[in-house]
Design brief:
Number of strands: 23
Number of domains: 3
Strand order of the largest sheet: 3-4-5-10-7-6
Strand content: 35-45%
Number of helices: 7
Shape: flat
Largest sheet: 6 strands, antiparallel, barrel
Helix content: 25-40%
Distance between the termini: 70 Å
Radius of gyration: 35 Å
């Protein structure tokens, strides 16, 4: 009998341990990594831009323009062919001028390759089958950091003739995978830093405080503190001096419970409504109906009576009929103060997305909606 009781106690303990493990896993799964909600200051990409020429098009290039002919003439001059821009005006249907853009990651070394995007700036109909000629890519400081060249992939096509043609996707923009070679790196010395700044993607004081507490708990000291709702400052501990990149990797993997603002986002142009998880409402009553007014006009022909003492004329008189119909809408009470109850009640009302926009605005105006209402 005692053995059975001990077995029951052991089973109960195992169940409790299993429940605690499930709860701990669930709680950890709800938290987010710091690398997903914040970035380190100084660790970012740098935008590059250049002006280039795409050649080899099948008659779908620029049909003219001063900058197109000037660009082709300058290119030919650099290759030892002297030609005036006016001599090739209207003859370069197989070439198109483009803007080439790319993003240079932090601390990437010379010789690495980047993807580039090519966008037509002339009146070219398509960049299909074109090849981008050597194009220097410059940063905001007007210094060349990469050089792009290669075949353009647009993922679409243009077919047919003027007046009867078909277009798939957007043929005036394309990409060149690994189309640029890095010639210069942006100097960033992360391991020499003695202080780091974490920039939150969504400003929130509570989340910034939780990030600082998580970092201090991991580093066993008071090294992190929130400077503002969007910045958390971290002092590099002595054991990580010269190994700041390792510290950044450890901080990025820490998980933090993110506190989000209760918000309802409305796009009136499309009728889209997004309701956040923390949105609550006070108990309210909702009635939603519509008034339809239909005006119809019928024309009635009136002839003069026969054998009238005085001659008359046929008259056409409009007969206007106005019908007003109001849809009966019952009054629904919403209880529970949760977004689920609100959605359930609105579904019972059978409202459309555009009606939902008006209802939410009315609830916010009444003071019963406890959330930020964002109208796009």
């Amino acid at each position: 009998m005692a053995m059975r009781r001990e077995d029951a106690i052991m089973k109960t303990i195992r169940y409790l341990i299993l429940i605690l493990l499930v709860l701990s896993v669930t709680t950890d799964a709800m938290a987010e990594r710091i690398k997903d909600i914040a970035t380190f200051s100084g660790v970012r990409g740098n935008d590059l831009v250049g002006f280039g020429v795409v050649v080899g098009l099948h008659g779908t290039g620029d049909r003219g323009g001063t900058f197109t002919t000037q660009a082709v003439a300058n290119m030919l001059t650099r290759m030892g062919i002297s030609v005036a821009p006016e001599d090739i005006e209207g003859q370069i249907r197989n070439a198109a001028t483009v803007i080439v853009t790319a993003r240079l990651p932090t601390m990437i070394k010379p010789g690495s390759k980047l993807d580039v995007q090519v966008s037509s700036i002339g009146d070219a109909r398509s960049l299909q089958g074109g090849v981008l000629l050597t194009t220097p890519l410059k940063g905001p400081d007007n210094v060349v950091y990469a050089v792009a060249q290669g075949p353009v992939s647009i993922g679409g096509f243009v077919g047919g003739a003027p007046g009867a043609h078909v277009v798939k996707n957007h043929p005036n923009v394309g990409r060149i995978p690994n189309g640029a070679i890095v010639e210069r790196e942006v100097p960033v010395h992360l391991n020499a830093k003695n202080r780091l700044n974490l920039l939150l993607k969504m400003q929130d004081i509570t989340t910034a405080m939780r990030i600082a507490d998580s970092i201090n708990e991991r580093l066993v000291g008071n090294f992190a503190r929130p400077e503002s709702p969007s910045v958390v400052s971290v002092i590099v501990p002595d054991q990580f001096r010269g190994r700041v990149v390792e510290l950044m990797a450890e901080i990025e993997l820490l998980r933090v419970d993110v506190d989000r603002v209760a918000r309802v986002v409305i796009n009136e142009r499309t009728g889209t409504v997004v309701i956040g998880e923390n949105v609550t409402i006070d108990p309210i009553a909702i009635a939603h109906g519509g008034l339809t007014i239909e005006i119809s006009v019928e024309y009635e022909v009136i002839h003069p009576p026969p054998f009238a003492p005085e001659p008359g004329a046929t008259v056409i008189l409009p007969k206007i009929e106005v019908v007003a119909e109001e849809i009966m809408a019952p009054l629904f009470e919403v209880r529970g103060a949760t977004v689920g109850e609100l959605v359930k009640a609105l579904n019972v009302l059978g409202v459309t997305p555009r009606d939902l926009v008006a209802i939410l605005q009315a609830i916010k105006a009444s003071g019963s909606l406890h959330a930020e209402l964002v109208i796009m």
